[in-house]
Amino acid sequence: MTQATEKVYELAFEQLDIIKIMATTFKDNIDSRRVIEKNGFKLEGIREKSI
Length: 51
Prior knowledge:
- With 51 residues, this protein is an all-alpha fold.
- It contains two helices and no strands.
- One of its GO terms (molecular function) is acyltransferase activity, transferring groups other than amino-acyl groups.
């Protein structure tokens, strides 16, 4: 996780009282999904036929 990502999490969860941060990628964009997962996100589902 990068320092910038850690600061964003700290700001969001500790100072802004945010409960959840969501990130999305296109279904076939595996590289982007890996980057998101390396930053602590977990796959909750896949939206079919959406734009």
